[in-house]
Amino acid sequence: MLDVLTGFVGELRAAGLPVSLTESIDAAEAVHHIPLEDRQALKYALAATLVKSSAHWKAFETAFEVYFSMRGPQYDIDGADAPGAPGGETGEGTGDAGAQGRGGGGEGLSPEELAEMLFRAVLAANDAQVGALARQAVTRYAGMEPGRPVGGTYYLYRTLRNLDLDRLLERLMHTVRADAPEGVLTPLEERLARDEFQARLGRLRRELEDEIRRRLVADRGTEALARSLRTPLPEEIDFMHATRDELASLRRAIHPLTRKLAVRLARKRRHGRKGPLDFRSTVRHSLSTGGVPVDPKFRYPRPAKPEIIVIADISGSVAAFARFTLHLVHAISSQFSKVRSFAFIDGIDEVTRFFEGVEDVTEAVHRINTEADVVWVDGHSDYGHALTAFWDRWGEEITPRASVLLLGDARNNYHASQAWVVQEIRHRARHVYWLNPEPRAYWGTGDSIVGEYGVHCDDVFECRNLRQLECFVAELE
Amino acid sequence: MSAPGAQGAEEEAHRRDVPGPLGFPDPGPPLFASVADVRQRLADVGYLADDGIAGVVHLADRLAKPVLVEGPAGTGKTELAKSVARVTGARLIRLQCYEGLDESKALYEWNYKKQLLRIQAQRVVEEDDGAPGRQAPGTAGGGRPEPGSWRDLEEDIFSEEFLLARPLLEAIRSTEPVVLLVDEVDRVELETEALLLEVLSEYQVSIPELGTVRAEQIPLVFLTSNNTRELSEALKRRCLYLHLDYPSLERERDIVLARVPGVSEELADQVARIVRSLRTLELKKYPSVSETLDWARTLVVLGVESIDAEQARATLHVLLKYRSDLERAAKELAVAGEDRT
Question: What does the alpha-carbon distance between residue A31 and residue A430 come to, in Å, rounded to a whole number?
């Protein structure tokens, strides 16, 4: 048991979760108090002791499912002995047999019959049947071959393409509409029915994922799979390579992040009590002790609220990154005396107005993408022209209190760099920072000229995920 | 791995020696028989726990560890602690956290006024007697020290009699079972969190003048956090972690049924489904469980049997608290413009 547990903790650590020694001791203690045959109970017990952040739950769940999948659904390990290394031979056999056995029933269905049964099962919300059909569908459509080195997403994609869930959804909706009195649904009913079916289809999708994972584990063994299935934690998702789902989860993650940052920045301001000696006040207060300055008084520091000027490349290659940064900076704009944003591709435009009076930053970003005048010639990044245009129109307005953030990968399509603008900005502004969403190793390769700009900046940061972005903003004072 | 979980008479015997052989505090006799028992008994007082919640509460009792409950506002974090207190028949002691909370509000404080009175009284007694003497009328309470003896006086004014127990100390000193609720722990500063650590891991409070106060019995501790900032590693490490998210459709419906008197099953189902749809939208603030309950109550009071677009529009402001959210919800759920009845 202990070996299994330490193996699991190792797996979690490898997935990037911070698990301390005391926490794993707690986990070992916790499993004494729950019935080991109860898989759910075990999962929650381990989660409660090992995972201390909701953002890490998904990573934990994947690790748990993979790691304990070999040990069969009944989890047949008794407390006394520890059955060898994770993913041992015995486990592999049973897992494989189980998968085969479960997939066995109803082998001879035609695709139409399968689709029809699935349709009925989803309509009736028959979870058990949906599960069985999901296994069936994986057998039929995923075309899984032993030892083939592709990820689970590939199989999932193949299965989903064959099942065509969108059409299934339309068919379900159609049935509901037909069943309604007078054959019409009110928009509200329509919406509710759609959400209901989406939820059921979501469950089906999860069943499919589980089934595919079970089979992959049976094929390759736990350890190999755990490595390939490791999902990045939300704060470590790369902006540049995020999938649509990941982008959605990033958007959700950024909201609490901005709140946390705002709180932290405000607190720092209130509690930084290290001011210089206030001589006048000290003398004034010393009168009550007969002129002896017993209690020295200090000046409260009044940290300047910096002005922020964000100049963001919003061309296709870095759009997602720029969006998050704009999002973040504007969400915490109460911490800065003034935030001005500029967006460019090859032309440049001030976009501050889109954020004014708008409660919803997503909306503002959308309007920037559609309304702002950022294209000059052909809509390919031209940093040189954008920067000179910026300097001509707004250069005068940069004050010594301003911090300038330049966002972009500095991939200039081999145009002139006009790096002198950055140098001029540096002379006027308090700080100039460049945030680059590309990995440091790629800087200066191809048409990337971040180096040319970088020499004129105070610092150039690699900023590929939320964590790095958060670190940067927290230091920005 | 030796098992302090082994039960029996031996457990009773060293119940008072709080840190067990491995540093695990001894939890005492179990409050709950099993996870299912937790669920059942919580349901009896109207708190519908899912597997995760029940499992963590059970573990908290068995491991004698505090539970850190995190999640969006209005998902029943505080309610969980209250319900557990009700189920176990324990007294609920609540420490509401806020920025600027300090030792004297959380742990204990010396009753300065009473101490001053005590010293004054001493002086009065001495002056009355004229000279150091023995007899004195019973003006000041407690054991009478030798007049003039500073040490006795000091021992006297730093005794339990002059100690004002604040929630944490109170929970530790209580002889009857206690549920301690540390509410919104994310509101205190990072440094203040440290105050909690000794209480949470050792169940003891060190008072320099008095020594260490050990727990008579291990209180069940719940800390809640709205996640406005990251709590320190040290605190998290000492706790079991429970994330309370918005409930599933079925659970929400059951909660509405359990908590709103006079609600029909059909209405509860509709309410839960509309709320779920709302939570899939991108809103500034998602409707919480307590707001769902408010909405269901509103509908019951209005005598609504089944919700149509018109009623939904008229009462949506119970659920959503931002104008932009209301507009978006009305647009998305198509309950806005065209009236179709």
Answer: 56
Q: Which residues pair with A436 in a beta bridge?
A: A462
Of A418, A435, A416, give the one whose Cα is nearest residue A313.
A435
- Give ipTM to 2 decimals: 0.76
A194 → chain B, closest CA residue: B277
According to the model, what pLDDT value does residue A146 have?
66
Alpha-carbon distances of A273 from A260, A285, A305, B219, rounded to whole Å: 21, 19, 17, 37
Q: What pLDDT, on the 0 to 100 scale, is given for residue A182?
A: 66
Q: pLDDT by residue (tens digit) across A271-305?
A: 555 677 888 888 888 888 888 887 788 877 666 66
Q: Is B3 on the interface with A (CB under 8 A)?
A: yes
- Among A23, A52, A362, beta carbon nearest to B282: A362
Contact B70 A359 (CB under 8 A): no
CB A47 within 8 A of CB A60: yes
Q: How far apart are alpha carbons B107 and B213 in whole angstroms?
A: 11
Residues near B329 by beta carbon (within 8 Å), at least 6 away in sequence: B278, B281, B283, B316, B319, B320, B335
Per-residue pLDDT tens over the stretch A78-107: 333 333 333 333 333 333 333 333 334 445
CB contact under 8 A, B273 and A51: no
Model pLDDT for residues A214-253, shown as the tens digit of each residue: 777 776 666 666 666 666 666 677 776 666 677 777 776 7
What residues of chain A, 411 to 470, have a C-beta less than 8 Å from chain B?
A: none
Give me the residues of A, 242-261, that contact B with CB < 8 A. Answer: 251, 256, 259-260
**Cβ–Cβ below 8 Å for A259 and B228:** yes
Residue B335 touches chain A, beta carbons under 8 Å: yes
Sheet holding B178-183, edge to edge: B91-96, B178-183, B220-225, B67-70, B240-243
* Per-window interface: A 308-367 vs B, CB < 8 A: 359-360, 362
Alpha helices in A15-126 (DSSP H): 21-30, 39-50, 57-69, 89-104, 111-123
3-state secondary structure A331-391: HCHHHCCEEEEEEECCCEEECHHHHCCCCCHHHHHHHHHHHCCCCCCCCCCCHHHHHHHHH
Mean pLDDT of A166-178: 79
Between chains, do B242 and A186 touch, taking CB under 8 Å as contact?
A: no
pLDDT of A105-147, one tens digit each?
A: 445 567 777 777 777 777 777 777 777 777 777 777 777 666 6
- Of the CA atoms within 13 Å of residue A222, those in its CB half-sphere come to 25
The average pLDDT across B304-320 equals: 81
Instruction: Give the closest of B56, B236, B312 to A188, CB-based.
Output: B312
Test A190 with B309 for CB contact under 8 angstroms. Answer: no
The count of CB pairs under 8 A between chains A and B is 122
Please tell us whether the domain made up of B9-101+174-243 is placed in CATH 3.40.50.300: yes
Q: Is some CB atom of chain B closer than 8 A to the CB atom of A164?
A: no
Q: Which two tokens stand for residue A129?
A: 């049947």
